[in-house]
Amino acid sequence: MKQHFLKALPAALVMALSATAAQAALPIDFGGYLRSGFGTSGEGGKESCFGLAGASSKYRLGNECETYAELKFGGEAFKAANGTTFRINTLVAFSVNQNQDWEQSDPSWREINVVADKIGTGILADARAWVGKRYYDRQDVHITDYYFWNNSGPGAGLENIDLGPAKLAYAIIRTADEKDSKRMALSHDFRFSGIKVNPDGELTVGLQYNQKRNAAGADPIASGHLLTFMHTQGNLLGGYNKVALQFGKGSAANTGGATLGATSNDKVTRLTEQLMIQPKGAWSGMATLVYEDRQTAGASSKWTSLGARPVYNFTDNYSLAVELGHDRVKPEDGETRQLTKLTIAPQLAAGPSFWSRPVLRAFYTYAKWNKAAQAAAAADTALSSTGVFGGKTNGSSMGFQVESWW
Asked: How far apart are the C-alpha atoms of 400 and 41, rounded to whole Å?
């Protein structure tokens, strides 16, 4: 009966049904990330997290007040006889303040794209083409969750183009005004990676140009550019060192993408360094340094951040992590703001590596800040005089956290 039914259908529809059935049988990859937990402040009441106004990040350990998760689903949709493959990628994320017992949160599609791999011959033999919404080659410091190079969003591109001494990637990413459909910018992102400059060392050079695409009558948008030099030293005490120097101007005076409200005089110079080591023995850890000189809307500020998270493993599964971080922000017209945070966290982890996850933690966090930091803090936040610590310039929190990726 099935054969008679299929004969009655148009040939194109039969082919579509057959293709759908074949795709439905393909294996689906499942990955993701999560962190969650709870805590309380040393004054009682809800947990407070410590961050400095004007700093673009905070030290994470024992200092995250949200449940956050990313769920990734994807799989190979088609593989041609010549080796070209098409892969579907999706990632949905949500974030909820941990002080809410009943969680109502709208999830966000952070990634939904298709990547075609091995799309040609010659320099395109291992190249990939993609279209959709994507986390685009993001670079971050793990212990602060600071994405210092992050041009993500809806776009399209070609990558892994073999130029011999370097691999070339080009992407065009859109930034749109959510409130005004007439305002839009396109970021043209060129990256040359894998440039061998020393044993186990590679250089990546990035150039981003922002093109304004306003419709008639829309508020003006500044163009801009971001130049990035990043050196990665591998095979270093079981880990790596990564240092990035960035120069941005106009709407690209940020970490990537386009700031639609920027002026043509906005600019930024940024140095970001991170060292991750795992020598033989019980120790591992990460340290970071950030220096940023920024001018926004005619006002300048300088941000300096220095911190480290050493971890000592008593056994393969039991460890102690300690994180000490200091942030300093000096506005052009104003007092210097300072915040120092210390966390001690005994851990039960899936292994002895710095990157072993899942990990279950108990934590105690102590922070101290100055009056300038208190005055600049947003109302009701930890450093504010209207927050849980009142007029004090120090405070603590304690609690439990789980973190995992897979």
From this structure: 12
Residues 175, 245, 149: CA angle, nearest 5 degrees: 30
- Indicate the pTM of the whole model: 0.91
Q: Report the distance separating Cα 99 and Cα 383, nearest Å.
A: 18
Question: How does DSSP classify residue 350?
Answer: S
> Is 335 strand, coil or helix?
coil
Q: Is 3 helix (H, G, I), strand (E, B) or coil?
A: helix
Residue 157: CB partners within 8 Å, gap ≥ 6? 129, 130, 136, 169, 170, 171, 172, 189
Measure the CA–CA gap between 336 and 381, rounded to whole angstroms: 19
Q: How far apart are CA 8 and CA 232, in angstroms?
A: 62
- C-alpha span between 277 and 237 (Å, rounded): 5
Q: How far is CA 146 from the centre of its chain?
A: 7
pLDDT digits (tens, 9 = 90+) for 29-63: 999 999 999 999 999 988 899 999 999 999 999 99
Residue 368 in contact with residue 42, Cβ under 8 Å? no
- Could you tell me if residue 307 is left (phi over 0), alpha (psi between -120 and 50 degrees) or otherwise beta? beta
